[in-house]
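Notebook, p. 212. Picked up where the previous page left off. The plan for this session was modest: take the two constructs that came back from the sequencing core last week, fold each one, and keep the raw output in the notebook itself so nobody has to go hunting through shared drives later. Recording the first one now, exactly as returned: residue sequence, then the structure token string.
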Amino acid sequence: MKIINSIMTWVMKKRIHDIELFLKYPFDVEQEIFSSLIKTAVKTEFGKEYGFKDISNVDDFKERVPIFRYEDLYPYIEKLLNGKQNILWPTEIKWFAKSSGTTNDRSKFIPVSQEALTDCHFKGGKDMLSIYINNHPDSEIFTGKGVAIGGSQQINQFDTTSNSYYGDVSAVIMSNLPFWARLARTPSLDIALMSEWEEKIEKMARSTIVENVTNIVGVPTWTVVLLERILEITGKTHIHEVWPNLEVFIHGAVSFEPYEALFEKLIPDPMNYLETYNASEGFFGIQDQTGSRDLLLMLDYGIFYEFIPMEHFHENNPKTIGLDEVELDKNYALVISTNAGLWRYLIGDTVRFTSLDPFRIRISGRTKHFINAFGEEVIIENAETAIKKACEATSAIIGDYTAGPRYLGKGQKGGHEWIIEFVTPPDNLDKFTKILDETLKQINSDYDAKRYKSIALEAPLVHVAPRGTFYKWMRKRGKLGGQNKVPRLANDRHYIDDILVML
């Protein structure tokens, strides 16, 4: 295994030279990607409708093609789901990534082409290992196996005559892995792709505890569930007693900050963490520096990027800008065109740039996940920072949370209502709530203005939920496992009221 580790390390490090190329020439690479996408799709139904043959530059593209939300693009996707081809992309679409649908109850089906699998998702998977090994030259990650916590997939029910499937993006990737990658992972695919989540966790726990696991890939929320079950089964106090060679957790989908203290408890040092930005629509970013959670924007994955400044987001026809115009520390809605046929697609995430040379980002929130019932404009990044500060000051460890507005009423001012599930409760809940509130004031001037002397907003109200509440709530909603995420913020009381009924 030492020899295999040396060979694989050498192979992975070779990719670093290609990464350095797009770091050096980002605008040339973006232009090349753009031209290739337009040329490839010129004879598709979409390409003909929007005159791709007459598009010679990005300005033409913006003028001819509107910004698409999922609902706008769905008529084209529906044709693909029903077995038609050459609609958005010329090569055959056999797979669809089914999104978690955290912003509404309807699932979304994102087409996944072979090019998107090979040149985006798989390339991103190899790059995260290349970057990790480059930063940790003594790594022995290839001497053991990786645990991948994914979702499930099934035959496309919209078109039973064709050989097509849909599932969580993790399941789509697992189902198409090359043979050498399958040998390096655990558990077996028949367990990893099970749809019944609680049975899957049980079988994953029992089948992986006997393996030499060196790395874990997954969403923090559901990884915690697996690790806690493994400790229950084995009677061990921490995961290194089960997997002594475990060295890295590769995570994404949700912010890691609320889970950091919990993972330190489950997996004591030495342990490394690597964050990625991998969604149903594509693989966008990888943490490339130790000691910083900034994500390197990956520019050679067949994705062309545009950005909407959030101050213009709610305009009827908001103007987008390219990488050559972005500024540091401003929030932008992300718009992508991809090698799976998503054209000027608004994916719903907001990012801010932390570096322009090279281009590094942080995910700052969702275009629909915020609280702005009173003009306070609280985004997920604000909430995560405030939660972390409050936990540090009160020795608390958080499990999950969600928050929403508390509306004006007779004799009652507006405010925010939080439901928080702690692993370790704060030593003083009033102090926790005060620091949460004070931190939000410090980092968000709009919130601070509304909280001034409690004129518009009263202090937040915090409910402490018993352990397991969010798990039961997600199960009730049919949202266990895979890419499903607990919605952190909402601009209405839909989630808050639903959980309060349980409490």
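Okay, moving on. Second construct, recorded in the same format:
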Amino acid sequence: MPQDMIRYDILAQEALRGVIRKVLGEVAKAGLPGNHHFFVTFLTGAAGVRISSRLHEKYPEQMTIVLQHQFWDLQVTDVLFEVGLSFGDVPERLVVPFSAIRGFYDPSVNFELEFDVEVEETVGDNDQGITSIAPVPQTDKPKLATPSAKPKPPVKTVKKPAKAGDKSDTEGSGDKATASVVSLDSFRKKK
């Protein structure tokens, strides 16, 4: 089989990350339209990711955030997005490069993207938590999943009524009364 010198796989992933960039950019300007909301899974040890050391300790490999009701100051650039979220009533600012995103899912329309992401580990610590990044080989990388017209089964979640003033809208919130955790692995196609 001939070798792909153009690397179409990388070009396709970059183009699909552009979809996420455009969608988040529009949400930053105009807010979430209709029932749209997003589950974004990213590698916490990827280059350029900035999260608190508290969150990094809790999610040393990857983390899924939900952008739905309670997020603020969403800013989108060509290479990353920044967003404010509450984790257990503690406000946090997250910086996530698009290259660190492993999955993007909008359950309102059953749209899902998955990406191959270089798994990395931190080497050394400082006040910020990370001094340098070293790549770690990943043996079982997920395959790129393109949107399909075939509907997927609905996500089975149980949501309890939100308490007044609750800002929990993330997997790491610790408040199970208002947030449902849905693993993106359950939506991935099996090999």
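Notes on construct two before I forget. The longest helix spans residues 8-30.
Flagging for discussion at group meeting.
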